[in-house]
Amino acid sequence: MVSRLPVDVGVALWQRARAENHVADIVDQARVVHGLGVPAVWFGQRQDHDATTLAAVVGAQVPGLSVGTSVVPLGPRHPLVLAGQAQTANAASGGRFTLGVGVAGPDRDRATFGVGVDRPIAHLREALTVLDDFRAAGVVDHAGDQVTARTAAPSAIAGGGGFGLLVAALGEQSLRAAGELADGSIPFLTGPRTIAERVVPGLLQSSGGAPRRVVAGVVVVVTDDADRVREAVRPALDFYATVPSYRSVFAAEGIAHPIELALIGDEETVARGLRRYVDAGATELYATQTDLGGPEAQRRTWNLLGALTRDRSAGRRQGLH
């Protein structure tokens, strides 16, 4: 029997192939995982659904469930508009929304949107400044080199202030921005060694020692057929092996391919792997790609995630923190 972890373990949700309605399917999945005791769900941003809007819908439809984005690229999105979306999602979810943002890279932004940010870290810092000011008071008056944002009047909505703010930060400069201007980092495919030796120290140094959230995203599939599932998951992770920032992480972890960071195996194997992230300094976890082993393995994975935090998530549903 696995022992519970001292942190929340959420899950990233994606539309199932057989779904007739994308949003309705995600809401149904969210109800299922919440019923199993999973305390939080996360939504990635692609070119189909809008992750922040989806989080707002799920947060309103499944009371007590925490929701967040992992992550929304900042490049083509003005931070003042994103702040309005974030406060709406926070109000809809009863104050349980976390906005996770990241830097996609100027080349990808230009290829997709026809625009790009030439100084991504400078843009990140200014965008975070706008988001942080807005969530604190609903008032922004910022004119920088990268971003101009001004509210004509206080723009906070009741119940929307104080949303969580995380950055997909791995490098020294982005970790500094996350520690100074946000609540912490939401790294994906970042092993325990990198979290312990790079992410946590970087955040603490920039925050002056103040605690920061580290929400680690981990590929998780509970199965008795680990070799087959690992081969099924590998192609989904090939892309990350081509990204320089991720390659530096893999080198630091001493691995050749990100599949080596995936936790694929029985309940005991996966629980031990997740505990390594907690021991490294992760304050929360979320499992992703849980569907790549098939429906039975996914349900088994969700059951494990709920079991790992069931008592504490039940307390949260009763308003206990």
TrEMBL record:
NCBIfam families: F420_MSMEG_4879. It comes from the Bacteria. One of its GO terms (molecular function) is oxidoreductase activity, acting on paired donors, with incorporation or reduction of molecular oxygen. SUPFAM superfamilies: Bacterial luciferase-like. This is TIGR03564 family F420-dependent LLM class oxidoreductase. Residues 18-283 form the Luciferase-like domain. Its EC number is 1.-.-.-. Pfam families: Bac_luciferase. Transmembrane segments: none annotated. InterPro entries: F420-G6PD/mer, Lucif-like_OxRdtase_MSMEG_4879, Luciferase-like_dom, Luciferase-like_sf. Keywords: Oxidoreductase.
